[in-house]
Amino acid sequence: MERMGLWLHPSPPSFLESRSKLLAPGRFLEVSNGLELNQSKQRRRRRRVSKIAAAGLTRSSQSIEAADYQAGPARQIENAVAALEDAFNQVSTSGPDGSEEGFAKRGDRVSRKRTDRATGGSSGTPSNGGDLWSDESEELIRSSFGVKPVDWGNLHHRYLTSQEEIELVELLTPVKHLHQVRSELRRVLRREPSDDEWATAANTDFRTLRRRLQLGEAAQNKLIEHNCRLVLFLARRYERDAGSFSLEDLCQEGVKGLIDAMDHFNPGKGTRFSTYAIFWIRTAMVRAITRTGQVIRLPFSFAAKKVEIRKARRELRVELGRNPSDEEVMERTGLDPVQFWNIYYYSNFRVRSLNETVRGTDEEFLEYLPETGDIVSESSEVREEIVTALQRLKDKERMVLQHRYGLEDGAIAVKSLREVGRRLNMSQEMVRRYEASALERLRHQEEAKSLRSCLASI
């Protein structure tokens, strides 16, 4: 600020509040840089500088108040100082006569540059060089704006050329910047900003903001429509491994991956968008299958290895002219037998309906399931047989078996001899003898079949 011949008040917190005092003629020092100006010209120049600075500062203050920024005085001071710098730059670049037309033109250029920085492109033209209000933009919005259902059985859209892909992706760039501005505004305000606040924060008007959003959505929809054939092609490759996923579900997941590819695509890398999107589409499909396509949720690495096994099996079938053995597939993929069979076992679960017909019969699976009442009655009969068999033993033998195998509380679990002896106040040897004696008695009892099978299963 010193090189422009100005001096500002040193207390930043009161900068905006006292702008009328700050802009008073007494606050500025005219530095003539060796030029002798008469007093009347100096007064006229001071008034002109004060008027331009006040206009710039007022615009900055209105912008901050309209967007309701609550980032603290530091941010407000920064914006106000930027407005003053722009105003004095206008003074320094004006004509010798000090006409206000030169100031207005300079202000318009500064405003357009700030809008470009906020929106990622020119305020009057889209990123691909076309006008926001041109016939091409109108045709794009008319043909592709809005949600349209996709008929996966009848896809007729052609593939886009490389130049068309770049132009559509470049229309998405300013929209990304606008959404970043909205997210930052939402974080600062701690509420959802209005459209006017959003437009003010992006240094544009609401009409231009809405137009850019419409062009961005239309460009995204057109990219999706013309790449649906690619999504369908990749979905058919994963349909066999999709489990309970249908082909249409896989296509929907592929479209999500296509949208992710739009967010990450960089045209400057020299790669076509359709080629770049294949990775994101495949990743979205595989993750969806891994997450919900199986009865047991498997790690993502399992699904990737399963695809590798399937690919190796297909290649070996072509090379050998026959179906390869599991050992040959393991050798080709480099997996050990434990990994191979774990992947094969856990990735081949299939959900079946109880009303599905059993192969070779006309009966349903439901007819082969036992009745719940039969299970309950059978378990109660077994419990009665165990109680009856224990009653035929001596007291200490019965107590040892009940504590040793958890029969006293119904929790079937083996306890150690030391633990049983501590509970019954016996030595380990005495517990072992009573246990052996009780088991010997049960072997010769016909009524103790249920108890013997129960103890044998522990």
UniProtKB/TrEMBL annotation:
InterPro entries reported in the protein's UniProt record: RNA_pol_sigma-70_dom (IPR014284), RNA_pol_sigma70 (IPR000943), RNA_pol_sigma70_r2 (IPR007627), RNA_pol_sigma70_r3 (IPR007624), RNA_pol_sigma70_r4 (IPR007630), RNA_pol_sigma_r2 (IPR013325), RNA_pol_sigma_r3/r4-like (IPR013324), Sigma-70_RNA_pol_init_factors (IPR050239)
Matching Gene3D superfamilies: 1.20.140.160, RNA Polymerase Primary Sigma Factor
RNA polymerase sigma-70 region domain mapped to chain residues: 223-292, 308-375, 389-444
A GO cellular component entry from the record: chloroplast
Record bears the keyword Zinc-finger: no
Keywords: DNA-binding, Sigma factor, Transcription, Transcription regulation
GO molecular function: DNA-directed RNA polymerase activity; sigma factor activity; transcription cis-regulatory region binding
Pfam families the UniProt entry points to: Sigma70_r2 (PF04542), Sigma70_r3 (PF04539), Sigma70_r4 (PF04545)
Region spans: Disordered: 90-134
One GO biological process term: regulation of DNA-templated transcription
PANTHER family registered for this protein in UniProt: RNA POLYMERASE SIGMA FACTOR RPO (PTHR30603), RNA POLYMERASE SIGMA FACTOR SIGE, CHLOROPLASTIC_MITOCHONDRIAL (PTHR30603:SF4)
Annotated family: Belongs to the sigma-70 factor family.
Official protein name in the record: RNA polymerase sigma-70 domain-containing protein
Organism for this UniProt entry: Selaginella moellendorffii (Spikemoss)
Upper lineage: Eukaryota, Viridiplantae, Streptophyta, Embryophyta, Tracheophyta
